[in-house]
Amino acid sequence: MSESPERHLHDHQPVGHRLPVVLGLIFGVVSLVSLFDPPAGRFNWFLELFPAIVGIGVLVVSYRRFPMSPIIYWCVFLHVLILLYGGHYSHAETPLGNWAKDAFDLNRNHYDRVGHLALGFFPALIIREVLLRKTPLRHGGWLVFIILSIVLAIAAFWELLEWWVTLVVAGDVGTAFLGSQGDIWDAQWDMFLALVAGAISLFLLSRAHDRSMQAAAIPATQPTG
Predict the structure, then answer these.
(1) What is the mean pLDDT of residues 45-56?
(2) Distance separating alpha carbons of residues 101 and 42, to the nearest angstrom
């Protein structure tokens, strides 16, 4: 009887199997530092980081049965660092964004835009890996279309979440979490940037993602063109 690919994955120690542990420890240390007297307040920090904490929890719980490829853990780690920096100061008040605003005579702190670019760029590969491993989908137009549709859905849901939080949480915390900075097209720009970032991620990293899955002993899918 032939051995299933998933069983083979469980029995094989993937390349870089310590990577999630190392990145998780770094995340824990940076989180504790970031949580110490954040200018935006601890409640805003929690609001900004809650989705990341949930996502990391899912990765931890599912690791034994569904370990991801190394590139995914790097994507999650980099995304969380972006969220941590924004959560510490609030995305609209980050020093880096204020520096860019003054240096380039911009009309707003654009770190919030960086956060929404990350919301499309990094999750696109996570979605890609889940679809390739758990559905009949293979490389091609339908895979790209479905990934980008999910990315856009996530970006739209995040805008709804910002709206709901602003309605429920009064005062500066709700305004800081919304982060529109007076831009009436803020939600549209955020969703558009997430979609564009998702497309760029697939264009730049799909081959590297395939190699990362192969290196981690994840059953190979059909090669890209």
Answers:
(1) 88
(2) 25
Flag the least confident range among 42-46, 56-60, 154-158, 221-225.
221-225
CA angle 120, 209, 78 (to 5 degrees): 50
Cβ atoms < 10 Å from Cβ of 106: 12
Distances (CA, A) of 94 to 24, 33, 158: 24, 16, 20
Would you list the domain boundaries of the chain? 5-215
Query: Which residue shows structure tokens 């490389």?
Result: 139
Round to whole Å and give the CA distance between 61 and 202: 27
Q: Classify burial at 195, counting beta carbons within 10 Å of its beta carbon; exposed 0-12, middle 13-18, buried 19 or more.
A: buried
Q: What is the mean pLDDT of the chain?
A: 84
Sign of CA dihedral 127, 128, 130, 131: positive
- Over residues 183-202, the pLDDT tens digits come to 678 889 999 999 999 999 99
Contact of 93 with 86, CB cutoff 8 Å: no
pLDDT classification of 93: cutoffs 50, 70, 90: confident
Tell me what the mean pLDDT of segment 29-45 comes to.
86
Token pair recorded at residue 168: 């429920």
Contact 225, 139 (CB under 8 A): yes
